[in-house]
Write a structure and sequence with these properties.
By secondary structure, the chain is an alpha/beta fold. It has an 8-stranded mixed beta sheet with strand order 6-5-4-3-2-1-13-14, with no helix packed on it. Strand 9 and strand 10 form a beta hairpin. Helix 4 runs parallel beside helix 5 and helix 11 runs antiparallel to helix 14. It comes from Microbispora corallina. Pfam families: Lactamase_B_2 (PF12706), Rieske (PF00355). This is Rieske 2Fe-2S iron-sulfur protein. Keywords: 2Fe-2S, Iron, Iron-sulfur, Metal-binding.
Length: about 525
């Protein structure tokens, strides 16, 4: 009898008669992202030793709430780590830093046989290589689990997964809480910040709703977040956890919303330690987690939690000291290297980004990126498209090669301003990957797509023929889009296009091919 146990956040454990497999365990008492994120609810009552001796540990991607260094450093030498195959070796290299050597890459849709010969696992990456996120599909003792994790799959992928599992998905675990630094770290007033947060919250839930409906799993489990914030410098961000209005959706709020919109679908939520029987789909509740509530006494819970982690939080500034006098030179050299990685990305960024680095040995630099290359120097009178303000102590680990820019962005330990207020995905992509093979794979994907496939959509009394696939990351707009008010919003990453012109109205992106059809 195979079982599925929540170990908190995005962590799941499958126990079968011949093996145990742990997905994305985040167990560190130090939290993640330089002590900014902490597990919510906490999961420190879970027996870590039993997890570190698992037959397999599957790590979906390099985000630090999925790839836990603290956990991996304790892993048994007998444990095999399974990872997806990505265009760059960033994930495998970072896992190797922990001392783990027994690592197996699994190609997309390739079955990796588990110990008993009857069970297997495969990986399902997001369509665009811009996002190194992947789902896992596992069949254990005849029962199937599609663990979507943070991957924003499209409906055709989940249908293929269901077919591969024999025409039935017993469990579909899907992330319903997008962790992001927008709008919380941007220069909006409170009213605008809350409005954008609610808009993104609903768009995410609609996206999850459509994917679940298209997949038709026997049981759907919204999971994988959100975190909470214990550091005094970030405690104000915990408004994102509000059940009704928060930017991050906790599992029970997601289940309530999804159940209302998909009344025929069976849903379940799991807290750390809750165990699901994959044969009967019955849940045995963990007695410790049963005392936790997402809606009652949350402020008091976080306060006690912060007190328990006070010593760890106090050590933060010691672990991340202010940078030395060589910081300016190293900062400039870092961007010179980034500028050598991809002319394609520089051309599409096409703006100046201002970095305001505060604290000892900081300064203000303008980084201009366009078709002519990258140039970095002191701030000028030019109006920057992005302004990023951050303490030097949080940038130092990036220059040392210990963290990525995306880790800093997700930590929420910075402030940003956009002028105009338009997302530049190419800028974020360059900072996120900072790796030539990964950037080359994205360029090849974006320039090699077949744009010939079209669909017809209606908006009121107007009809348009548009490209079937979103020009950003390839989401199938025939299944993953909202058409209204003269616009089409892709539910993959919420890019919005003007139906009349095809221009993206909320991000830097290639236009959507579109033409209005005149009624005969």
């Amino acid at each position: 009898m195979a079982t599925l146990t929540s170990i908190g956040h995005a962590g799941l454990a499958v126990e079968a008669s011949a093996f145990t497999l742990v997905f994305d365990p985040w167990m560190s008492p130090h939290g993640a992202y330089m002590g900014s994120w902490f597990q919510f609810p906490r999961n420190d009552h879970i027996d870590v030793k039993s997890l570190t001796s698992a037959t397999y540990v599957a790590i979906s991607h390099e985000h630090l709430d999925h790839m836990d260094f603290w956990f991996l450093e304790q892993l048994s030498d007998e444990t095999t780590v399974l990872i997806p195959t990505y265009p760059s070796d960033t994930l495998i290299d970072r896992i190797r830093e922990t001392g783990v050597t027994n690592i197996v890459k699994i190609a997309p849709w390739e079955r990796f046989t588990l110990n008993d010969g009857e069970s297997w696992i495969t990986t399902i990456p997001q369509p665009s290589p811009l996002y190194h996120d992947s789902a896992f599909l596992i069949v254990a003792e005849g029962r199937s689990v599609l663990n979507c994790n943070d991957a924003k799959l499209i409906a055709s992928q989940t249908r293929r997964a269901k077919h591969m599992a024999g025409g039935r998905l017993d469990v579909m675990a899907v992330q319903a809480s997008s962790a992001t630094w927008h709008p919380m770290r941007y220069s909006y007033d409170e009213e605008e910040e809350r409005r954008i947060a609610m808009e993104k919250r609903i768009a995410k839930l609609v996206s999850v709703q459509r994917l679940i409906r298209a997949t038709g799993a026997e049981l759907a489990i919204p999971f994988a977040g959100p975190p909470c914030f214990l550091d005094p410098e970030l405690r104000d961000v915990n408004w994102v956890l509000d059940t009704e209005n928060g930017a991050f959706v906790h599992p029970e709020a997601a289940r309530s919303w999804l159940s209302e919109h998909l009344p025929r679908q069976v849903f379940q939520t799991l807290k750390p330690g809750d165990r699901l029987d994959l044969e009967t789909l019955e849940v045995t509740r963990d007695p410790v987690s049963a005392r936790f509530s997402f809606t009652e006494g949350v402020e008091e819970y976080i306060q006690r939690y912060a007190e328990d982690r006070a010593e760890i939080l106090e050590k933060l500034h010691v672990e991340y000291p202010e940078p030395g006098p060589d910081f300016p030179e190293r900062f400039v050299n870092h961007f010179v290297r980034l500028g050598s990685l991809s002319t394609y990305f520089l051309k599409h960024i096409d703006m100046t980004v201002r970095f305001e680095i505060t604290g000892p040995n900081g300064g203000v630099w303008d980084v201009r990126m366009n078709a002519d290359g990258l140039a970095i120097g002191p701030a000028t009178t030019e109006r920057p498209g992005y302004t990023i303000s951050v303490q030097g102590r949080w940038v130092e680990p990036i220059l040392a090669g210990e963290l990525a820019w995306e880790d800093l962005l997700l930590s929420l330990r910075m402030r940003l301003h956009r002028d105009p207020d338009v997302f530049n995905g190419y800028l974020v992509g360059l900072l996120k990957h900072a790796n030539a093979p990964a950037l080359q794979a994205i360029e090849e994907y974006e320039t090699g797509r077949d744009e010939g496939d079209r669909i017809v959509v209606t908006d009121g009394d107007r009809t348009f023929e548009i490209a079937r696939y979103c020009p950003h990351a390839g989401e199938d707009l025939s299944e993953g889009a909202v058409i209204e008010d003269g616009k089409v919003q892709c539910l993959g990453h919420f890019f919005t296009f003007d139906l009349a012109t095809g221009e993206c109205v909320n991000a830097r992106c290639n236009p959507l091919t579109t033409r209005e059809i005149t009624a005969s």
